[in-house]
Amino acid sequence: DFGNVGRRRLLQESASKEFGKFGEPFLHSIPFQILSWRPRIVYFPNFTADDVCEKIIEMAKPKLEPSKLALREGESAENTKGTRISSGAFISASEDKSGILDFIEKKIAKVTMIPRSHGEAFNILRYEVCQKYDSHYDAFDPAEYGNVQSQRIASFLLYLSNVE
After folding, report:
1. In which band, very low, low, confident or very high, does the pLDDT at 77 lie, cut at 50, 70 and 90?
2. Which H or E element spans position 11?
3. What does the DSSP 8-state code read for residue 137?
4. Residues near 96 by Cβ (< 8 Å), separated by ≥ 6?
5. More confident residue, 62 or 12
């Protein structure tokens, strides 16, 4: 027990240090709202600028293909028809010469506190009117899907356009 002397010294030392400075000012002002603790759902309004979203949309347009579906053992494309109706493209940050996806990837890593190395390529999806993806999990139960190469520990959704 150092009494008040030890406590005063600790406070003086900590007051002279700068905390929270790490050279990335955009992270200082990212507002968020906790929507749920279990499962954890965090909402980041205005996570990126409209012009950045437009550039990502333009980058993905020429690569869009009908979205694929991971099949459980015993399922086929025929008996799961209508489960997922959309267009999509996988684009990695390393493919993007503009650096936009690299910036977004870094920002996602910072706010989620999950290293970039744990991520996968961006799955950019386009849903037109009446298109959908039925309720599903973003992780695969090996008992249902067999041996899978990777498992997601989290999903980050970034809406590139306004939706109702």
Report:
1. confident
2. helix 3-16
3. -
4. 59, 102
5. 62
